[in-house]
Amino acid sequence: MSRKLIAPSFLAADFANIQQEVEMLNSSEADYIHIDIMDGVFVPNISFGFPVCQAIHQHAKKPMDFHLMIEHADPYLEDCIKAGAEIITVHEEACRHLHRTVTEIRRLGAKAGVVINPHRPVSALEEILPYVDLVLLMSVNPGFGGQKFIETTFDKVRKLKKMVDQANPEIIIEIDGGVNDKNAGELFNAGADMLVAGSFVFKSDDPRQTISNLKKA
Ligand SMILES: O=C(CO)[C@@H](O)[C@H](O)COP(=O)(O)O
Ligand SMILES: [Co+2]
Q: Where along this sequence does the record place binding of a divalent metal cation (predicted)?
């Protein structure tokens, strides 16, 4: 059974009004606040750093889900925890010693997640599944909000769901990129537990209602 969690991506929020945007999320049905950290090396974009994360955390009443799109995650894990991370996800291709990194995330007290890019097979995750709490499937290429959902993600979710059910059914399956009201229902039916939505939530006329609608998808 899908857990139907929604994590609005703060990347699409109005940064001139951080407090109001976080308060909107606090009063919504959002389950997590998704925080996209980009280093301009692993992905061709730079988002924001820990002072901004601290500002979000200061007002947040929802748990924070940190998505690290960076080459060198290990030196920044403690900063994520201090900035409120309850989930930290790292890209499997970016981590030279992935097992070490996810083990360290758990030791620091957060849920550890591994992220897989659109071109990579879910079979690449087989050996790491016993050591993670969450798998994030990218449904766009990482680096930017507002991109088009990649349709082959549905099959990938179904494949991953089978693997997760065998390895550890507690593992959360999270999907990130181009999520909207047209694909959310099918993603949940395919086995996704948690959907990240940036533009679709924050650029809508009524973000709170949009979050509620996605949860019911
Ligand atoms: O990690 C990323 C992009 O790299 C995402 O979290 C986006 O921020 C989602 O934005 P939308 O595709 O929903 O606009
Ligand atoms: Co993200």
A: 34, 36, 67, 176
Domain total of the chain: 1
Q: Which residues surround ligand 2, an ion (CB under 5 A)?
A: 36, 67, 176
Is 8 near ligand 1, meaning CB less than 6 Å away? Answer: no
With a 6 Å cutoff on the Cβ, whether 10 touches ligand 1 is no
User: Which of 199, 204, 211 has most ligand 1 atoms within 8 Å of its beta carbon, as the pocket-test mutant?
Assistant: 199
3-state secondary structure of 105: helix
For this complex, say whether ipTM is above 0.90. Answer: yes
123 marked as part of a ligand binding site? no
Q: Is the CB of 12 under 6 A from ligand 1?
A: yes
The pLDDT tens digits of the residues spanning 7-36 come to 999 999 999 999 999 999 999 999 999 999
Q: Which of 54, 43, 49 is nearest to 18 (CA)?
A: 54
Residue 183: give its domain's CATH number. Answer: 3.20.20.70
Which of 138, 137, 90, 130 lies closest to 110 in space, CA to CA? Answer: 90
pLDDT tens string 184-196: 999 999 999 999 9
In our burial notation (b when 16+ CB lie closer than 10 A, e otherwise), range 108-126 reads eebbbbbbbbeebebeebe
Residue 18, domain extent? 5-215
pLDDT, tens digit (0-9, with 9 covering 90-100), for 100-129: 999 999 999 999 999 999 999 999 999 999
